[in-house]
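Progress note, sequence design subtask.
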C-alpha cells in the first residue's frame, strides 16, 4: 500500500513494488513549499478528478496512476473503502493533487496533521478542496464559445 510522508523538504508518495509497476513510475515527490491544502476524504471516489491517463484502473477497485483535467495532472493511489489523504499542490509542482488511501481514519487525520505542520505555505481560507478549473476559465483552455443558458 502507498504511504505519504515528509522527507526533508519534500512530500513523498512511497509506492509499493506492484504500485510502481502499475503506475510505470517510482515514488512521487513534490516540494513542501508547493503544498497549499491538505484534506481527508472519507469516500475514495471523491478524490478522483478528470480522466485516466497512465496507470491501472480497476472499476470499483484499485486506482493507481495519473489523471488529467483542464487544471493539470493528479496522481492517485486509491483503494475502495478506505479514507484518502488529499494534498493540493500549487501550479509549480509536477502534479496538482496527490491522493493516497490510508488504512483508517486515525491514520488519515495523523498524516494530514503532519503534512499541515510541515508545510510552510498552507492556505487556511477554507478546509475544502477547490473545484477543478473549467477549460474556458484556464489560460490556454478551450476557445469554444460558451453555450447559452
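Output:
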Amino acid at each position: 500500500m502507498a504511504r505519504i510522508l515528509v522527507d526533508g523538504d519534500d512530500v513523498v508518495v512511497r509506492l509499493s513494488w506492484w504500485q510502481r509497476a502499475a503506475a510505470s513510475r517510482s515514488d512521487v515527490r513534490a516540494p513542501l513549499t508547493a503544498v497549499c491544502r491538505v484534506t481527508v476524504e472519507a469516500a475514495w471516489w471523491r478524490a478522483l478528478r478528470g480522466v485516466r491517463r497512465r496507470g491501472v484502473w480497476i472499476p470499483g477497485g484499485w486506482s493507481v496512476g495519473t489523471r488529467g483535467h483542464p487544471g493539470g495532472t493528479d496522481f492517485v493511489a486509491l483503494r475502495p473503502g478506505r479514507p484518502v489523504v488529499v494534498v493540493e499542490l500549487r501550479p509549480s509542482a509536477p502534479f496538482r493533487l496527490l491522493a493516497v488511501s490510508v488504512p483508517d481514519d486515525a491514520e488519515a487525520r495523523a498524516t494530514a496533521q503532519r503534512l499541515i505542520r510541515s508545510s510552510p505555505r498552507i492556505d487556511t481560507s477554507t478546509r475544502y478542496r477547490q473545484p477543478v478549473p473549467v477549460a474556458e476559465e484556464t489560460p490556454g483552455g478551450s476557445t469554444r464559445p460558451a453555450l447559452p443558458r
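Residues 142-149 have pLDDT under 50 and may be disordered. Work on this subtask will continue into the next period as scheduled.
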